[in-house]
Specification:
With 365 residues, this protein is of the alpha+beta class. Helices cover 56% and strands 19% of the residues. The chain has ten helices and ten strands. Helix 1 packs parallel to helix 10, helix 2 crosses helix 3 and helix 6 runs antiparallel to helix 9. The radius of gyration is 24 Å and the shape is elongated.
């Protein structure tokens, strides 16, 4: 009797332990996704040098920056003089430009964006320099105003040509010899693409929901390939200016794709049957979201080719990194009773978070 009752007692003890473990996983997923959604703010910067004048223009997605800063930028763009003065002062402290070793003087600051058709805040600064030659040195450090992990892709145009640079946590400044412009290397755009996908938690949650309903290696290959092809198409079309859809439309649609896939996992008897088709269709939407990282800096010619190829390659590398990490974790959690529990838990978490983002983005618009 003692031997026969021990396994039963052991089995009763295991069930609460498994449930408790999954409760911790769900809470962690929801908390981390809420906390880190769009943790990295990607700014798009244009810097134009003409004679002794430099114009600086920054565009940043309002949903990606701290809410207090987004409200301040929107109020300033809508004519609030107090908000405009606060943003202008922040801009003058955050952006410094030297030419030939002499600091350029910031004069006019203009703030725009945040209307019904534009989810981006825009700040433009005019600088007057004491000369027209030498090295152009730019410091772009917005501190916590645009988010702790703020980074930016900048296109610097001078009479001698143009150069693309990345400002990030490791490097907030860049110096360019305006008489000898240096082309951006492919690695800059690849790095930006990797960081963009690995910090785009809505895109990663969409992938996780897709993978949670996958059955077998071939299914995973179809899903990932379809998603890759689709977002590459729309990213290219948007970057070339052939397709333009406001972020206030795209961002809620991205959240809706997460909800759709998660609910299909929960309600469909065979969610994997046409999963690659949904992956392709919704990948077109996500590609338009990726395009925001390239669309506003007016690249052309060889620079545009480098940006498209390099950024796309970076997104794919980052995506593969996520799949390589996520698949073994899903497989491990899917052992035994987890074969049915794991997809449901992951899908419920995705559906809840997708719904939160959808509501937030609709009302933000």
């Amino acid at each position: 009797m003692r031997h026969s009752s021990a396994p039963a007692f052991s089995a009763r003890r295991k069930a609460p332990s498994r449930n408790a473990r999954w409760a911790v996983v769900v809470i962690a997923v929801l908390f981390c996704t809420k906390l880190f959604a769009h943790a990295t703010t990607t700014g798009l910067i244009r810097i134009d040098l003409a004679g002794d004048r430099v114009s600086y223009a920054l565009a940043v997605a309002l949903p990606e920056i701290p809410n207090s800063s987004a409200l301040l930028l929107t109020a300033a763009a809508n004519g609030d003089q107090g908000a405009a003065a606060t943003v202008a002062e922040q801009a003058r402290r955050s952006v410094r430009i030297d030419l030939g070793g002499t600091p350029c003087k910031a004069s006019g600051v203009r703030i725009a964006g945040g209307d019904a058709n534009d989810a981006r805040g825009k700040v433009e600064i005019d600088f007057t320099c004491g000369g027209q030659h030498g090295r152009l040195t730019v410091s772009d450090d917005w501190g916590t105003f645009l988010g702790e992990h703020y980074q930016a892709l900048a296109n610097i145009r001078t009479p001698g040509g143009e150069r693309q640079v990345v400002f990030d946590e490791a490097s907030r400044g860049e110096s360019v010899d305006i008489s000898r412009p240096v082309e951006t290397g492919w690695l800059d755009f690849i790095k930006l693409g990797i960081e963009h996908i690995l910090t785009g938690y809505d895109h990663l949650l969409f992938l996780l929901a897709l993978l949670a309903g996958a059955r077998g290696f071939l299914s995973v290959v179809k899903i990932v390939t379809a998603f890759t092809l689709a977002h590459s198409v729309t990213l290219t079309l948007a970057a070339l200016g052939l397709v333009t859809i406001p972020g206030r439309i795209i961002e809620p649609l991205i959240a809706a794709t997460i909800i759709w896939v998660a609910l299909e996992n929960l309600l469909s008897a065979a969610p994997d049957r046409r999963r690659w088709m949904w992956s392709f269709g919704f990948g077109l939407v996500h590609g338009l979201g990726f395009a925001a990282a390239l669309g506003e800096i007016n690249l052309s010619g060889a620079a545009l080719v480098r940006a498209l190829v390099g950024f796309n390659a970076g997104v794919e590398i980052g995506q593969l990194i996520f799949v390589v990490v996520a698949l073994p974790a899903l497989a491990l959690l899917s052992r035994g009773r987890g074969a049915t529990l794991t997809p449901r838990v992951a899908s419920i978490a995705a559906a809840v978070m997708g719904t939160y983002w959808l509501i937030e983005r609709v009302f933000a618009g």
